[in-house]
Amino acid sequence: MDKIEFKQTFIERLAELYAMEVSDATPIELYQTLGSIVSTTYTKQWSKSWQDYRDTKQKQVYYFSIEFLPGKMLKSNLLNMGWLEIVEEALSELGIKLDDLIEIEPDMALGNGGLGRLASCFMDSIASQSLPGNGNGIRYRYGLFKQRFVDGHQVELPDEWLPKGNIWEVRKDSKAVDVHFGGSVHLEEHHGRLKPVYHGGYTVRAVPYDTGMVGYKNGTVNTMRLWDVAIPAEEEEHYRSIEDRRMVEELTSVLYPDDSNEAGRKLRLSQEYFFVSAGVQSILRYYKNLHLPLEQISRYIAIHINDTHPAMCIAEFMRLLVDQENLKWEKAWRLTLQVMSYTNHTIMAEALEKWSIEMMQDVCPRIYQIIEEIDRRFVEEMSTFHNQGLIQRTRIIQDGQIHMAHLAILGSHSTNGVAKIHSDLLKNVILNDFYVLYPSRFNNKTNGIAQRRWSQLANPAMTKVLNQTIGDSWHRTPTDLHLLMNFTEDDEVLEQLAAAKLENKKRLAAYIKEHKGIEVSPEAIFDVQIKRLHAYKRQLMNLMHILKLYFELKNDPKRDIHPRVFIFGAKAAPSYHYAKAIIKAINETANLINHDPDIQDKIKVVFLENYNVSLAEKIIPAAEVSEQISLATKEASGTSNMKLMLNGALTIATLDGANIEIREAVGEENIVTFGLTEKEVYRYYQEQNYRSLEWYHNDPVIQRILNAFIDGTIPNIVNEGKQIFDSLIQYHDEFFVLRDFADYCRAQEIINQLYQDSRRWNQISLINIANAGIFSADNTVERYAEDIWQIRPNPSSQLG
Ligand code: 26M
C-alpha cells in the first residue's frame, strides 16, 4: 500500500463508516476508521496463518496466562505491518496527527505488571518469529484499576476499557465451549471402567474473543484468545435469580489487582478453572478435527503454563483424556507430561498459590479427584526409591492444601525460571527437592522484551539516530545493535544520541508540567524507578536517599550536586497497606522538597499517577538512570531494567535478577552496582544476625532520615510514617534497606560524578544501547521454541 492508495482508502472508509469527510470527523471517528483499515487488512493474513498451521499440521504452542498486558495496539500493528511511516505521512497530508489518534485507544490493561507484560511481549515475538503460537486468557470487563492520588493517597477507580470500544477483538460464538462448575461427582462402573457421574452444579458458556497478534513484517498473524462468560440459552431456566446471573457474570468481570499476595478467593479459583477448561477443551476439539491419533498429540500441541495460575491445565487435560477419550491413566499421564511446561516467576513465599481441598472440591470436584489421584500415585511410586521426608515435602496435597507449584512441576516436562540467578535459586534452594527428583526438567529462560515497541515505537528520536548510524538490520536482528560499539569514540554520534535524549526529556518535562504542575529542568538527571510498589523492590530506599540529599542541601545549599529529577511510577495492590503508606510518604516528600526555595530546583520528586504501558512508553525514552534496587534474590528477573538500558539509561543495580546478566553484557564499568550479594543475604538468613536497630543506632545519617518519618519533618504522614519506621526497626527490616543504604548512597554519588563528564556518560549510554540486543524477547521465545515447545517457524511465512 502506498501513500496515495492509503489516503484514498482512508477517505472511502470514513465515508462508508460514518458518511463523513475528514474535516467533519472527530478524533474518535478517525481512529475507528484507521483501526478498521488496519484490521481488515491483516485479517486476510490472519486466516492464512491459521489455515497454514491447520493444513500442514504444524505443532502449535498455547500460552496460558491469566494476564495479558498489551497496552495500546494501533501503533504496534502499524509498525509490524510496515505501515507506520506511510500512514503517518499520509494522515498528516490529510491534516491529521497520527499521535492524536493513537491517544484515543484505551490501554488494554488485563495484567498487573511484569508477568502480564511478559506474556504480551512474547505474543509479539512469537508472531514476529513466524512461530505457530496462541495466547489463552480471560477477557476481563475491568482491567487493572486506574490510580489517582487524593491528598497523596492512592485511590483506585475502575478501569472501564470496553465501553470505549475494542476494535481489535472478534467474538466467535461458533467456537464457544461449556464449562461445568460445582456440584458433586461420584464414579460408577461402566463397561469395566470407572466413569464420573455429575450431580448438580451449573454450566456456563465460555465465548472466545480473538485478537490478531501481528508479526513484524512477516505476514504472520497469530491469535490471542480471551474468554468471556455467558449463560447458555438452553440453561436459562437454571439462572432465574439475579444473584445466579450475577455470579456468572462475575467470573470474567475483574482482574485481581494483587501481584504478590495469594488471597485464596473462591472467585479467583473459578476464574482459573474457567479459562483453563475453556482453553484445553477448545485445543482438544481442534486436535480431534485433524483426525490424528490421540497418542500423538504431543507432536502437534504444546501447552505452556505461565506461573501457577493455569496449573489446573494438567488436571483438566487428564480429565478430558481419561473421562472423555477413554485413555488409560498411565497413557494419559505420559501425554500430559509431554504437552505441558511451566514457568515460575517468583520465589516470594506469600505469592505461592495454595488452595484448600474444600474450596477446590467446591469449585471443580472432578479436578480435585484427579489431583488427588495424581498425588496418590506420586507418593506410591516414589516410596520405593525415596525417603519419606522428600516425598512429603514434594507431594501436591499437604495439610489440607493443594500446592499449585507442585502440581505444575510434577505434571510437566519443563520448569524454568526467568533469569540465571532465579533459575539457579529454584534448582539449588527453593525447589531443590524437585530438582533432586527430576534434574533434567529444570532450565533457565532469561526474560526478554518486545524490542521494537520499546525502541522504534516509543523512541523515534533515538531510532532515527540508530538507523542513520548502523542501518536498520537491528529491527529484525536486535543483536545488530552491537554495531554501535564501533562508535564509542565518535563524537557526532554521541552528540546525536544525547540530543535525542534531550528531546525526549523535554517532552516528558512538558507531560510532568501538564499533569502534575511541576516544573522540571530538562538539564537535570532524569532518574526513574517504575514498577509495582513492593517492599522488596525498595522504593523506600530510593526515598531515603532523596531525603539524605535534601538534608545535605538544607545544611549546605552550595553543595555540588548535579540537579536531579526523581521520577516514580508505581501502583500498590489495594489491600497492601504498607505499599500505600510508601506512596503517601513519597508524595508528601515530593511536596515538601518541590516547594522548598532552599533547594533551588536541585532536586525534584515526581510521582506520576497511573503507571501503565502507555505511561512507560513516555517515561522510558527520557530516562537516564534506571533504578533496579531490589534486595538480591528477590526480583526473579525484572524487565523494566531491559527497557531502560535499551533506551540508553545507566543502571544503578543490586546483583539481582537480570541485572546480573545486564552487567555481564555491558561490562562492570558501564553499570553501577551495590548492595548485598545473594550469598550474603543467605548468610544472614542462616546466621540470623541482622540487627537493623544497630544500623540505626550506629549511623547518624540513617537516624536523621528515619526520624523524619515520625517527627513531623515529612508532613501529614503520622500513621504512614510510623508504619514505615516500625517496619525497619521493630519488624527488623525484612529487606535489608538499612544494611544496603550506605552502599546505595555511594553508588548514587558515582552516578552524580559520572554525569559531570558528559562525554563519558554519553559513551556509557551508547554502550548500554549497543548491548541491549540480547534481551530481545525474539531471542527468548526462540529458546522456548527449541528447548521446551519443540515448535518451528512456519515455513510459508514471508520473512523479509
Ligand atoms: C496472585 C494472587 C491473586 C491475584 C494475582 C496474583 C498474582 C498475579 C501476578 C501473583 C503473581 C503475579 O505475578 C508475579 C510477577 O509479576 N512476577 C514478575 O514476573 C516478571 C516476568 O517474569 C519478572 O520479571 C519479575 O521479576 C517478577 O516479579
TrEMBL record:
PANTHER family for this protein: GLYCOGEN PHOSPHORYLASE, GLYCOGEN PHOSPHORYLASE, LIVER FORM
Annotated family: Belongs to the glycogen phosphorylase family.
Gene3D superfamilies per the UniProt record, alphabetical: Glycogen Phosphorylase B
GO MF, any single term: glycogen phosphorylase activity
Cofactor: pyridoxal 5'-phosphate
Keywords of this entry: Allosteric enzyme, Carbohydrate metabolism, Glycosyltransferase, Pyridoxal phosphate, Transferase
N6-(pyridoxal phosphate)lysine sites (modified residues): K643
Its biological purpose: Allosteric enzyme that catalyzes the rate-limiting step in glycogen catabolism, the phosphorolytic cleavage of glycogen to produce glucose-1-phosphate, and plays a central role in maintaining cellular and organismal glucose homeostasis.
GO cellular component terms listed in the entry, alphabetical order: cytoplasm
Entry-linked PROSITE patterns: PHOSPHORYLASE (PS00102)
This protein's name: Alpha-1,4 glucan phosphorylase
